[in-house]
Write a structure and sequence with these properties.
Oligomer: homotrimer
Structural class of chain A: mainly beta
Number of strands of chain A: 36
Helix content of chain A: 10-25%
Shape of chain A: globular
């Protein structure tokens, strides 16, 4: 099978890129190259291996790795054995963060900014600079900021305002009407008007097949830097703060307020009009029916207090 | 940022439209206009404000609103203060219902009935009058009624029959095969034929990215006036009655029967072959493993009886 | 309304097709034909009816069926009454399996292998023989095997490898980036590189609107013969074995290992890095926070041991 990421990258190039992040280097790295970043157990000769600072047996990992080059912190010693193995150790403060930096620079494919010919854009829409709009994207009477990436098959309705540096994955639907029905005396259902906006601030990233509805009479707002995973449902009038992590299949009902830095674990459900305080954590599969104070972790169905952040 | 809904609507026009819904009017409304309907705390001078009849402090809300014109019920008095503020009070029986009526008439964008050039329709399909089919809609060998709205990126397989006045939001998939596999003695999985229809009756509305499967040997049926929110999964052979409210991320497994007027709260899961009686309510995040009698509320995992409707 | 499946099939043709699966036949079947396979209670004169071997009252079902022809096992007697009714009984070992075989052969529509003109394929992609690619399918720099069926509006990113005889339903998104973010000291979120592959082995079938992410530094793998239903989320680095049944709205977080023949019931949530042993069963709506040994059934939130397979 086809191997992904078979690009060769010279160690010298990586060291130049890392610059001051490198504390020191042991071993001869001239003319060495890598074609892959290793995961914890699949390193080959030309992988770049790395040792998370949280591991216990770092010295053993370094000495038994198949890789020639490793990113480590200073708790790993450059032993005679490592020297005999001709291994190169690149010392940094936080190996995981540095590996992310290397991967993002050298191995993540750069999208060419372009608008695919099949994209359908409303004549009243405003599209920013340097955007990538993938095949079959549909954009209504809405505003798209600069440097935005929208993958194929995304649908954006009217009255959506998207900031800069936003990423939206395939199949996601933004700005559809919220689910607002009034039951009449004859049990018929009458729709309440859904005429607010959906505002998505800068640096937000949204996974695949998620749905974020427009507001009813006010706006739905997703705060700066917030990340939303696949298959999430965010209902009308919800206000989400900055740098919130919303993992897979989360359900946030109408008019909730989620403050900055909250973490919501997979498949949690939040009742409408709930307030979740700054930095709170909602556990996996929780069903939240009460307000959650800042810094607290709640879990279960129904969700209850579990612990408080120190 | 661009303001949505900046259309000006004259109060006189609204009063003419409401006609007999208006009980009486206080204040001079000639030449006044609005450009927005207020939500509970964001009223500006030219918003139409309104006071829900369930509120306690209606008089205070009326007197402190920034809006010139308010929709109220007769428990709000037209005080000297309101008069001095030159406020206009339009008296109706149910302000929330009247606001919905005004919003739907004046502020909800009317879709122009049309079939986008990118729509792909099977040559054996039947399409009704006055439909809106958005970009990239795919329709198999199926039947679409009159006055149906199907937003972009919806996929309709074969053997789907959709009534009149139905609305389907983007990303929804109708009529895919149900999940029917038999485990063989060697642990292999053989597919059971999925050859029934999916029948969607008049006035049904379906959210974004939901999935409703065709029947196996019988039909899947969604009853008249039923509303389904985003990211719901409705499996093969399910029969849903009239005016049922199915909120976000509901999972209804195969062959369930859901009677009229049921309410299913977000992220509930219903086991296959379950019967839910008329007017029952299934709580948020519930996991229903037993039949639920009419008029009862069940909650929890597993769901248990909670209360009975009076 | 239009009737689906109105094709006429002669009983003689069915008997010829079944060949050695038929143990014996009672009654005169010459010139008889069917146009439908009956479900348990909707048989008409020209339906093919059948009696599941698990039923108690098989003789009564046979004698009261409206159908002329029934597939039965040898516990049903060909009584005088059945004879007087001119009914035809086709005896087989497992009626349900035989009905599946007949349905799949005569009533399931055969897709013509073809690539719709609207399909968008990356110039570096490899596409196998005899594939069906429906309207608006998007395929990145990926590999598609032989005899693969991909319904309309599916999105496949780069670095996805799909084996032979795979079926993917509409709206599904394969190979998007996993959800990997590191919280920095200033609470900002930095993305960890997502550069692994998504590998889908032969005979896998995937429902509508599901999402399976590519790996981060390793690969995400879906094993041979595994079936995945609608609206499932399978995160980066997950390894799923052979013939696993993943029902609707399942959430499998990053780096889980699911062994062969596991059954995961609807709307279950599996925490990241969890191991689920061969043949285990995870109950509906369960929230799995611990490893599950082979052959065990776990249920609840949080999931606990319920029983062990004999």
């Amino acid at each position: 099978m086809k191997e992904v990421n078979m690009k060769k990258v010279k160690i010298e190039e990586i060291i130049r890129f890392l610059s001051e992040d490198v504390q020191r280097i042991e071993g001869k790295y001239e003319n060495l190259w890598i074609n892959k970043i290793a995961s914890y157990c699949n390193a080959k000769k030309n992988s770049l291996d790395w040792i998370n600072h949280t591991k216990n047996n770092k010295q053993i990992i370094a000495e038994s790795s198949n890789a020639k080059v490793l990113i480590v912190d200073d708790s790993v010693k450059y032993t005679e054995l490592l020297k005999d193995q001709n291994k190169v150790l690149i010392y940094v403060e936080n190996p995981r963060r540095i590996v992310a930096k290397i991967g993002n620079e050298f191995f993540v494919k750069k999208l060419e900014k372009s608008i695919h010919f099949s994209v359908i854009i409303d004549s009243k829409a405003t599209i920013g600079q340097d955007v990538y709009l993938g095949p079959n994207v549909i954009i209504g009477d809405s505003i798209i900021g600069d440097n935005v990436i929208i993958y194929g098959n995304v649908t954006i309705y009217d009255c959506v305002e998207i900031g800069n540096n936003v990423v939206i994955n395939s199949g996601t639907v933004l700005g559809a009407d919220g689910f607002g029905y009034e039951r009449e005396e004859n049990n018929g259902l009458v729709k309440f008007p859904q005429i607010g906006r959906l505002i998505i601030k800068d640096n937000v990233e949204i996974g695949a097949n998620s749905c974020i509805d427009r507001g009813a009479l006010e706006d739905t707002i997703i705060g700066e830097g917030t990340k939303i995973n696949n298959l999430c449902h965010i209902a009308h009038n919800v206000k989400i703060g900055k740098n919130v992590l919303i993992t897979g299949q989360i359900n946030i009902s109408g008019s909730c307020i989620i403050e900055d830095d909250v973490l919501i674990s997979p498949n949690a459900t939040i009742r409408d009009h709930i307030y979740i305080g700054k930095g709170a954590h909602i556990g996996m599969g929780s069903v939240v029916t009460k307000n959650v104070p800042a810094g607290e972790t709640w879990i279960g169905n129904p969700a209850k207090f579990y612990k408080k952040k120190k």
